[in-house]
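Propose amino acids for all 283 sites.
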């Protein structure tokens, strides 16, 4: 309502609008300047900032979000990560022919970009678009059908490929015929011993790295920390950059609650080094 009222006020003669980037503010927030600026420039032909500056709108939104240290709202109009995202197969097929069928502006005008998501709603167009985006060209029509079928099967079992391009790329490469994993987890063993009031956790791992099998073990504060330490000891020589990577957060979500403690769960992991924040999902 704040954005709508502000735009109507301009049409009524107002020459000053107050708001905040991303609509941040106490209580229920403020009018979102990102939406106001984009609407004035692109919908109402009122140039309040230059075109070259308008292309930085998404960048400014993300920068302010980082400064505020608040959860990212991907659903913000114009600047949100999902503002120009397409999921359904019919939608993607139409967008590939004419972007105006499902997009009200070109996302680049506000510094955003088009995203095609891969999910259980995907069609061949989604897969084709994503393969081109990732530079994968060695997938024929037969493999494309198999990939789509297997992807839908995994998604129906709780897997998620929407925001994990690297996982999707690995998934596709498994159907290329010459895929050899660089890292293969063969075996893990985790034990926790509790002697009240304290407890100890131990982890053993067996990993194949470039056809060489390596075993290691480590202790830690809890099973997750113990497993993390054991894997680091195993991988650090081959991947020294892991020294800079640390766990920021992880969350467990129940995918299917019909089996009690046997339920399938999805673990969302956030890792970071000095430059990047990486989100991973595993089951």
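Proposal:
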């Amino acid at each position: 309502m704040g954005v709508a009222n502000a735009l109507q006020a301009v049409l009524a003669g107002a020459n000053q609008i107050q708001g905040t980037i991303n609509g941040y503010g106490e209580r229920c927030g403020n009018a979102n300047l990102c939406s106001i600026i984009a609407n004035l420039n692109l919908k109402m032909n009122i140039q309040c900032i230059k075109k070259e500056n308008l292309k930085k709108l998404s960048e400014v939104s993300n920068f302010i979000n980082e400064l505020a240290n608040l959860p990212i709202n991907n659903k913000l109009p114009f600047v949100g990560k999902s503002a120009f995202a397409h999921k359904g197969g019919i939608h993607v097929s139409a967008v590939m022919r004419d972007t105006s069928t499902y997009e009200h502006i070109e996302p680049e005008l506000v510094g955003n970009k088009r995203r095609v998501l891969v999910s259980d709603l995907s069609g061949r167009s989604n897969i084709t678009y994503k393969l081109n985006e990732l530079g994968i060209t060695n997938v024929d029509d037969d493999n494309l059908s198999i990939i789509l079928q297997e992807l839908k099967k995994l998604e129906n079992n709780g897997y998620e490929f929407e925001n994990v391009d690297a996982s999707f790329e690995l998934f596709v490469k498994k159907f290329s015929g010459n895929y050899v994993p660089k890292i293969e987890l063969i075996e893990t063993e985790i034990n926790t011993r509790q002697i009240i009031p304290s407890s100890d956790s131990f982890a053993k791992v067996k990993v194949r790295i470039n056809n060489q099998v390596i075993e290691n073990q480590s202790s830690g504060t809890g099973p997750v920390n113990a497993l993390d330490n054991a894997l680091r000891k195993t991988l650090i020589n081959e991947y020294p950059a892991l020294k800079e990577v640390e766990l920021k957060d992880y969350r467990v979500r129940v995918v299917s609650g019909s089996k009690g403690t046997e339920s399938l769960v999805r673990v969302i992991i956030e890792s970071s080094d000095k430059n990047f924040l990486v989100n991973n999902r595993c089951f």
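The chain has four domains: 2-68, 85-173, 180-244, 247-283. The two ends are 41 Å apart (CA to CA).
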